[in-house]
Design a protein that fits this description.
The chain folds into two domains: 12-103 and 178-460, TIM Barrel; 468-578, Golgi alpha-mannosidase II (Immunoglobulin-like, Sandwich), CATH 2.60.40. It is built from 18 helices and 19 strands. The protein has an eight-stranded parallel β-sheet with strand order 9-8-7-3-2-1-11-10. A five-stranded antiparallel β-sheet has the order 12-13-14-19-16. It is 28% helix and 15% strand. With 580 residues, the protein is α/β, with parallel strands linked by helices. The protein has helices spanning 32-37, 39-45, 80-92, 111-116, 178-194, 248-261, 277-285, 298-301, 306-320, 337-340, 347-362, 392-397, 432-436, 439-443, 449-461, 464-468, 548-553, 558-568, and strands at residues 12-16, 49-52, 96-101, 130-131, 152-155, 160-163, 198-201, 267-271, 293-295, 326-328, 368-372, 470-473, 480-486, 491-497, 503-506, 511-516, 523-525, 528-531, 536-541.
Length: 580
């Protein structure tokens, strides 16, 4: 039975990219004191936790995702004491703190790798993935790096290749070695002992590779590529059968969960990038012995279309049973959702509408939610000229893919030249359009995206059906997206018009008045709902009007009938493991 008293179920987690949040020291780079200084702002949003992207010592070739010391703070971000002060202040404000652990790989400057590459006889010789060349000197197999090109780099000292799923300066650890797994669990324990509330686990399905090093097959006709990988990247041309997502991965996640269980109220949030991401999310979060929750890149790739979004939700539901998702529409790796879902010529007018609609839709899904810094402002993708690009992924695939710099530009606190982010030239430029959407401007406007987000999150937190209730997709036409959120004592129908035209639909039996309407302009008239363009409606439904057994009996497809029985089990007085 799902324990809905666990703080992370239904939570909203605010992601902070520390380089770009606030520079408190005047060097153009955001830091830990800058985060601490504005934690009151984060708490006022009504979120439950913060996730801080890596701040560990690093050469910053991949901006902190290339770690040289799992137990330190890079001087660029401040000191160890700065982190302790951040943790203390967050807890005073009622915010949980989740930090980003990059278990799968390190920097090539990490002392583990320096020892491993020194010779084949070193005590850490097999802490990384090494393999002999083929007889013709080429790499051991056809595996590709996520950042394009071969996933193997030759090292002249060992006369072997080492594996790197990302940059060549990010060698992959060998999780087949028990000593590696123990070392990483010890690193996690270090932060848990300090008092952090959990971990976001970078590439949580990348820990193990196939020990036999078989070639990956080519992506077959009709097979789906890994979400959010541009077509210009050769990585999209393989089915990643042997380099990631191996069965042994579940064993390590079980070991990690055992550790987490020693620290009550802590949580793991896994990042999953895979050819079958939603199924992998379910596999990794079902039951109570692996990850607590996980997110995929499916919504990052989704078009702003009711049918496509519905298919993603239904696909997850079909496999889910008791799995717990953590949904997101933006983060530090993908184009901001406002720019993905709004054409450039309509950005000025429609951007705020789409931003608000996207946020309430995301926060109405079953599961937990990640909001990326600036999402509450409705920020579009930042404009970064080529000469200011620093992302190695973008530089490698330019111009077809512009990389991740546009979603990492500094947070605009004021409308000033540098957005109130820094007194020095920022590491990435502050977008002019972002300055018009700054925190100080929006805070003074009751109708702003910022204030609308604050009000909606406060309302959501008081609705049992929105936090943990089952999600039942509603049958609208392809122009409308909607679902029922149903708990034992409450039911709310949510409907979204994702088009630029007014739409009408008939409401189900038991429909009452609006449960929430703040700023939305839908109207009700004798059982008919009228939704203007880019609008949402939240409508109270009489709980007694929902008969789960009748819904199941009306379904003619036997396979789907079983799916509905699992989905609606909790509403029929059965275990909440069926709740969706």
């Amino acid at each position: 039975m799902l324990d809905m008293t666990q703080w992370w179920r239904g939570s909203v987690i605010y992601q902070i990219y520390p380089r770009s949040f606030l520079d408190a020291r005047g060097d153009g780079i955001g830091d830990l004191p800058g985060i601490t200084a504005n934690l009151d702002y984060v708490a006022e949003l009504g979120v439950d936790a913060i996730w801080i992207s890596p701040f560990f010592p690093s050469p910053m070739k991949d901006f902190g995702y290339d770690v040289t010391d799992y137990r330190g703070v890079d001087p660029m971000f401040g000191s160890f004491n700065d982190f302790q002060m951040l943790l203390e202040r967050a807890h005073e404000l009622g915010l949980k703190v989740i930090i980003d652990l990059v278990f799968s790989h390190t920097s090539d400057q990490h002392h583990w790798f320096l020892q491993s590459r020194s010779s084949r006889e070193n005590q850490k010789s097999d802490w990384y993935v090494w393999a002999d060349p083929k007889p013709d000197g080429t790499p051991p197999n056809n595996w590709l790096s996520f950042f394009s090109g071969s996933a193997w780099t030759f090292d002249s000292r060992r006369r072997q290749y080492y594996l790197h799923n990302f940059l060549s300066c990010q060698p992959d650890l060998n999780f087949h070695n028990p000593a590696v797994r123990r070392a990483q669990l010890d690193n996690a324990r270090f932060w848990l002992d300090m008092g952090v509330d959990g971990f976001r686990l970078d590439t949580s399905n990348f820990y193990f590779h196939s020990a036999e090093l078989q070639n990956n097959p080519a992506l077959g006709s009709g097979e789906l590529k890994t979400p959010s990988v541009p077509d210009s990247n050769p990585y999209s041309m393989q089915r990643h059968q042997f380099d990631i997502s191996q069965p042994e991965n579940l064993g390590f996640l079980a070991e990690l969960r055992t550790l987490m269980n020693e620290y009550p109220d802590t949580v793991t949030v896994g990042e999953i990038s895979d050819d079958r991401p939603l199924e992998r999310m379910v596999e990794y979060t079902r039951g109570d012995d692996h990850l607590h929750m996980a997110y995929t890149f499916d919504l990052f790739d989704a078009k702003f279309e009711a049918r496509e979004l519905r298919n993603i939700i239904e696909h997850f539901q079909y496999y889910a049973v008791d799995a717990w998702p953590c949904w997101a529409l933006s983060n530090h790796d993908v184009m901001r959702v406002v720019s993905r879902w709004t054409s450039a010529e309509h950005l000025e007018h429609r951007g705020p509408q789409v931003a608000r609609l996207a946020t309430v839709m995301l926060c109405s899904l079953y599961g937990s939610v990640c909001l990326y810094q600036g999402e509450e402002l409705g920020l579009p993708e930042g404009d970064v000229p080529y000469e200011r690009l620093v992302d190695p992924y973008g530089l490698a695939l330019w111009p077809d893919y512009k990389g991740r710099d546009g979603c990492r530009t500094p947070m605009p606190w004021t409308a000033g030249e540098r957005g109130g982010f820094s007194t020095a030239e920022p590491w990435l430029p502050v977008d002019v359009h972002h300055r018009r959407l700054s925190v100080d401007r929006q805070a003074e406007d009751p109708g702003s995206t910022l204030n609308a987000t604050r009000r909606f999150l406060r309302w959501r937190k008081a609705q049992p059906a929105m936090l943990g209730g089952t999600l039942i997709l509603s049958d609208f036409d392809d122009e409308l997206l909607g679902w029922l959120r149903v708990s034992r004592d409450q039911a709310i129908l949510v409907v979204f018009n994702l088009t630029d035209q007014t739409r009408t639909t008939t409401l189900p039996a038991g429909a009452g008045d609006f449960a929430y309407q703040d700023g939305f302009t839908a109207s009700l008239d004798e059982g008919m709902l009228t939704l203007p363009a880019f609008q949402a409606a939240f409508i109270d439904i009489a709980r007694e009007s929902i008969d789960p057994q009748a819904l199941i009996e009306q379904e003619p497809d036997p396979e789907r009938k079983g799916f509905l029985h699992r989905l609606l089990g909790s509403l029929m007085g059965q275990d909440d493991t069926g709740a969706r």
